[in-house]
Amino acid sequence: xxxxxxxxxxxxxxxxxxxxxxxxxxxxxxxxxxxxxxxxxxxxxxxxxxxxxxxxxxxxxxxxxxxxxxxxxxxxxxxxxxxxxxxxxxxxxxxxxxxxxxxxxxxxxxxxxxxxxxxxxxxxxxxxxxxxxxxxxxxxxxxxxxxxxxxxxxxxxxxxxxxxxxxxxxxxxxxxxxxxxxxxxxxxxxxxxxxxxxxxxxxxxxxxxxxxxxxxxxxxxxxxxxxxxxxxxxxxxxxxxxxxxxxxxxxxxxxxxxxxxxxxxxxxxxxxxxxxxxxxxxxxxxxxxxxxxxxxxxxxxxxxxxxxxxxxxxxxxxxxxxxxxxxxxxxxxxxxxxxxxxxxxxxxxxxxxxxxxxxxxxxxxxxxxxxxxxxxxxxxxxxxxxxxxxxxxxxxxxxxxxxxxxxxxxxxxxxxxxxxxxxxxxxx
Length: 428
Ligand code: BGC
Description:
- By secondary structure, the protein is an alpha/beta fold.
- It has 2 domains: 3-144 and 304-371, Periplasmic binding protein-like II (D-Maltodextrin-Binding Protein, domain 2); 149-302 and 380-427, Periplasmic binding protein-like II (D-Maltodextrin-Binding Protein, domain 2).
- It has 20 helices and 14 strands.
- The chain has helices at residues 3-10, 39-54, 70-81, 94-101, 111-116, 119-122, 125-131, 154-159, 169-181, 193-218, 222-226, 228-241, 253-261, 274-280, 316-329, 332-342, 349-352, 362-377, 392-407, 413-427, and strands at 29-34, 58-63, 88-90, 132-133, 136-137, 139-141, 145-146, 149-152, 185-188, 265-269, 290-293, 301-304, 307-310, 380-382.
- The strands form 4 sheets. The chain has a 5-stranded mixed beta sheet.
- A hairpin with a 2-residue loop joins strand 4 and strand 5 (136-137).
- Helix 2 (39-54) packs across helix 14, helix 10 crosses helix 19 and helix 12 (228-241) packs across helix 20.
- The longest helix has 26 residues, at 193-218.
- The chain starts with a helix and ends with a helix.
- It binds beta-D-glucopyranose.
- Residues 35, 41, 67-69, 145, 253, 273, 304, 306, 386 line the site of beta-D-glucopyranose (BGC).
């Protein structure tokens, strides 16, 4: 039984409604559980909070620190078991279906907003399917992040004698060698399972291409998981780990980003929420920093869509606040300002053709262009590390294998590929 099913068993119907739901509330309060707590992320979520408050509702902040959201998801589950879920929570990918299937999400609440605002015509099918349960919206998507980016400090590259961004794994290692020789951390990284797997999926994408990535990490094909291409992926991952700083255990992603921003490190492999830290530090894309697809992944786009799911509540004021928040979140103004702060691109297709006119920087313009192009070629793939491709149980099994591998210098790539295949099978 997966964790959401176990959760369902623990919740009685009577406990589905938040304790606060019965309190009288003038225009309504909405509590929002999310994990946007770094400087750049906070600047982005504050845009939503300000708009909801401007509309007269009360925003109760349910921020739970911890990149990638694993801690926030644990908190959310225990609150649901205790009969005290928030009105809104950041939930992504297939997990949305699991929460909806146990009856905790409200599939009626957003019907009117979605119709009035024409959500179906604004979103690509892959996106709307993710946030609908049995045909009805249970969450509002807020943005699109691209995961397979490499962030570069060009000043550090120059000091190390590197004249261009790497486009192949060999060029990447050559740059890493020069950075190390010049006394820099070559690849800034935080040793947390979700960050390890963010790097792993980039390497799989580089080695296997989008088709192989899909077979391995989306379709979970046993032969691909244990096959020669996966052995090669682990071999490359081992080499790449050698360019990371040995004191990385437990380091948060934004601290690793700061190492690149402050000129201590040359590169970071991270989704474009890393750009929020550069923006918060008043750095300009294309001038103070470079964003390039991770070497060998130029024709692919691993997507990660943040969405806010609505929980069933009884209080009419809270329901009105949930609806207001959902309407704001897909509105054009919010989509622009939020993504500029967050490092992402809008999820509304009517904005993606127009990125330069809307004031988005070079990284966001490239991201939008590639998103539209890769949607047509099969290069657009859901990120495993960011909850878009598998259940959380399967993702957890992959995280364990990958993190153990990266922390054991004697680990064998061939054995690890076999372990990966059996761990995935056991978790399915
Ligand atoms: C989320 C981003 C967030 C990042 C770091 C990702 O999984 O989608 O919104 O900025 O984790 O916490």
